[in-house]
C-alpha cells in the first residue's frame, strides 16, 4: 500500500532542507541531566543504606567488646573474692584488673548493682557496662561470698580492693600509671 501523496518538507520529517533538526541539542542536554539525577539518587540510596549497615556493625562490635570486658572484670572480682576468703585476717586485698580504656573507639562506664539474694546464698551483683556514644549496655551477673559495694567507675584500669570496715569489695578507678602499690604483709603491727 503505497500512497501517492506528496512528501512534505519541514520539521516533522527528520531532516529539513536546512539540515539536522534544531531541537536535537536540547534532547542531549535533557538526557544528560536525567542520567545525572538518576545517578545521584542511586548513590544517595547506597550511602544511606551503607550508613545504616555500618552503624549496626559498630553497635555489634561495641556489644561484643563490652561482653569480653565484663567477663575480664568478673574474673578479677572472683580473684579478689577468693583472696578475701582465703585469709580472713588479711585486710589488704587489692586486685588490679587491666581493662581497655575504650571499646570500639568510645569510653564506657561500669556500674555495680546488688540483686536480691536468698538467705544463705552467695550475694549476687549485676555488672553493667554502658558505652558513652552508642548507648549500648551489657549486663553480667556475678556471685561472691564477700559483698560488693554498689557504685560506678570508668573503664580502664580498675582496682578491686577489700574494705575491712564492711567487709566488702570495692571497685575503684586505678591510677593513670596502671600499677598497684604493694606493701609487705604485717602481722600484729610489726613488719615481717
Overall 3D shape: rod-shaped
Report the strand count.
10
Return the average pLDDT rounded to an integer.
Answer: 81
Alpha-carbon Rg, integer: 36 Å
Counted by DSSP, the helix tally is 1
Distance linking N and C termini: 124 Å
Secondary-structure-derived class: alpha+beta
Order of helices and strands: HEEEEEEEEEE
Strand content: 25-35%
Helix content: 25-40%
Strand order of the largest sheet: 1-7-8-5
Task: Describe, in plain words, how this protein is organized in 3D.
With 192 residues, the protein is of the alpha+beta class. The chain has a domain at 53-179. It has one helix at 24-86, and strands spanning 94-98, 108-114, 123-131, 137-144, 147-148, 151-154, 157-163, 168-173, 186-187, 190-191. The strands form three sheets. It has a four-stranded mixed β-sheet with strand order 1-7-8-5, covered by helices on one side. Strands 4-3-2-6 form a four-stranded antiparallel β-sheet, covered by helices on one side. Strand 3 and strand 4 form a beta hairpin. The longest helix is centred in the first third of the chain and has 63 residues, at 24-86. It is rod-shaped and about 120 Å long. The model is unreliable at 181-192 (pLDDT under 50).
